[in-house]
């Protein structure tokens, strides 16, 4: 407990596996994302939409590689989460912490990753549908869209399908426009 809020530490690891590689099918990229955030309770409610808390945090994202393949950036963010019934909406604006020009291995990352993320989730019986949108809000209009579907396979496992289109699915390719479909397994649902 920190005053009226709670301080959390989190770590997210995303690995991209090249199934189609005939030699050894190695991981193409692994992104590391440690963060610390403070969750502050709120009591905002309007027409049945409820904002129970706001997260304020610091996040570092990198791919742990060296030289020309190194990618990283640091951000501070606020995450506003609004709930109603079986759904939730998250608006997460951020500010990139500037680096020295000599140390910045991706100075234009905001041109592709933007300054915010809008995401949502809706539970429909035992299925979950989600989305994520990012945009740089500039005339060149770069961003990304992601659509997710999670469904039950057994009492323990869920299946997962994800469609991604845009920039920044992984750090190594943050400035390449990509389209991909992913599948996976999950042990828990989203909500």
User: How far is it from the N-terminal to the C-terminal residue, by CA?
Assistant: 23 Å
Mean pLDDT: 90
Rg calc = 18 Å
**CATH class category name:** Mainly Beta
Classify the secondary structure makeup into a structural class: mainly beta
Q: Could you give the order of the helices and strands?
A: EEEEEHEEEEE
Q: Give the CA-based shape.
A: globular
CATH-derived architecture: Beta Barrel
Task: Tell me about the largest β-sheet.
Answer: 10 strands, antiparallel
Measured by DSSP, the beta-strand proportion falls in over 45%
Low-confidence stretches: none
Helix percent band:
under 10%
Describe this protein with a few key phrases.
191 residues, mainly beta, Outer membrane phospholipase (ompla), Chain C, ten-stranded antiparallel sheet, 1 helix, 3% helix, 60% strand, globular
Structure, explained:
This protein is an all-beta fold and 191 residues long. It has a single domain, classed as Phospholipase A1 (Outer membrane phospholipase (ompla), Chain C, Beta Barrel), CATH 2.40.230. The protein is 3% helix and 60% strand. The chain is built from one helix and ten strands. The chain has one helix at 109-113; strands at 6-17, 27-46, 49-62, 72-84, 87-96, 116-124, 127-135, 143-152, 158-166, 178-186. Strands 1-2-3-4-5-6-7-8-9-10 form a ten-stranded antiparallel β-sheet. The mean pLDDT is 90.
Give a quick precis of the structure:
The chain has 191 residues and is an all-beta fold.
